[in-house]
Amino acid sequence: MPKVSAEHLTNRRRQILDAAAGCFARNGFHRTSMQDIVKESGLSAGLIYRYFPGKEDVILAIVEEWHTTRSAGLGTASDPLDAYLGLLRAIAAPEAARQRNLGMQAWAETVREPRIRALARQGVDEQLEAFENAAPPALVRVLVAVYQGLLLQASWDDDLDVEAFVAAVGELVRRRG
């Protein structure tokens, strides 16, 4: 059997995750079957199961990527507030609709799936750490809740003025001192 490169394996995994994310965004985690992911990806079921033992593992991988991407932007920022406000703008952007849908479903899964709950917990802890010198922990938790609320509102309110929302959040945080 010929050996495949690490790049090939990474690309194939990405293909599976992208197909799954599309299915999950359209139909939700629970209404999407592994067969749906097989069909969307164009790959065989056997190949997909070589990468992911089951649908829960696919969901977990997507949620892990989501948390990693969000945390990377905040953890390395020289100005955490500006980075946070940029994150608010990004999650409310029209092109982020799929990410918002997946995010809401992931948070709902925290009630049922301990591994996803642990990732959500890790995400909050990372925010507490990123802001530890810039804001008290209670304010960071409020900012997490603002992010979650904006994600929800941006998902169903086409008239939401994102810039006004972000400006108001920035002003509230700056006034706290």
Structural commentary:
The structure is a single chain. With 177 residues, the protein is mostly helical. It has two domains: 1-53, Arc Repressor Mutant, subunit A (Orthogonal Bundle); 59-175. The chain contains nine helices and no strands. Helix 4 (55-75) packs parallel to helix 7 and helix 5 packs antiparallel against helix 9 (162-175). It is elongated. It starts with 5 loop residues before the first helix and ends with a helix.
Which structural class fits the helix and strand makeup? Answer: mainly alpha
Instruction: Output the helix-strand order.
Output: HHHHHHHHH
Distance between the termini: 64 Å
Number of strands: 0
Q: Radius of gyration, Cα only, in angstroms? A: 18 Å
Fraction of helical residues:
over 70%
Helical segment count: 9
Q: How many structural units, i.e. domains?
A: 2
Uncertain spans: none
Q: What shape does the CA trace take?
A: elongated
Which strand-content bin applies to the residues? under 5%
Chain-averaged pLDDT: 89
Largest sheet features? none
